[in-house]
Description:
mainly alpha; two-stranded antiparallel ribbon; DNA-binding
Amino acid sequence: MKTYSISEVAKELNLTPYTLRYYDKEGLMPLVERTSSGIRLFKESDIAALKVIECLKSTGMPIKEIKNFIDWCSDGDSTLNQRYDMFMERKATVESQMEELKKTMEVIEHKCLYYKTALDAGTEDIHKKAKIGISGPN
Amino acid sequence: MKTYSISEVAKELNLTPYTLRYYDKEGLMPLVERTSSGIRLFKESDIAALKVIECLKSTGMPIKEIKNFIDWCSDGDSTLNQRYDMFMERKATVESQMEELKKTMEVIEHKCLYYKTALDAGTEDIHKKAKIGISGPN
DNA sequence: TTAATCCTTACAGTTAACTCTAAGTCAAGC
DNA sequence: GCTTGACTTAGAGTTAACTGTAAGGATTAA
Lengths: 138, 138
């Protein structure tokens, strides 16, 4: 079975070896095998697990909570419920993040239009002095 | 014109007075008026400006860059171009954040299904031993 | 008049997630 | 044999954005 060195994995996941060792130290990678001399041998499944970790991280989940999940994985079927609940909770989190982002986008787009108009007019006053025009304020 | 105290504004924006004073110190609130004794009087327009700041923050923009924007606002029409460009850039950022979130959501939803199936079966092995069933692996 | 709330400066502490250095070892490839 | 890249422990440094304390003073509402 093909294995990968720490720097190969780091490159693939856009991380550094430092970060991977840090994750290891924090207990996020309990399954990675070693050579007799102690060098980490990452399998495809380890990389897949790291991608899940990166996914959880991108939802804003702190490393200590991700560690709980990793521990549950090691504990076997008795923790299936916790793990299911955790992902359902993450799903809700991501849903609300999406809604927040949508609202943010609306404000940003509004500002883009605002500055486009101002730029075309050569002055921001176009928004303050709309009374002069035909259409009136707003 | 109605004005608001620092703690009223903090409550409305889910911040603390400490944070607002910190923003002020970092140059994010150059326009807030004061009483003769130095107490901040926030107008509706100041609160609106703070909401824009929170919006920019939620896109991941660091405070120092937000300060640039605030400075440009003070500089008047000569900076309309920078401000327009900035919001267009923010728009692109938010778009890519949305795409990232979508990918994240797909992984999370996949995991939800995975654990739902495992939970119903009582064991995670259902995924490893799929060969036994009719449908085969995957 | 008393409690609450505001202000200032100055600075220390917190948290998360790295990021790196030191010092010393080990092992594989050219 | 030399370079490269891996390893260890231990610990220091970094960054961002707060978060809070101290010390002293002013204002305002009940």
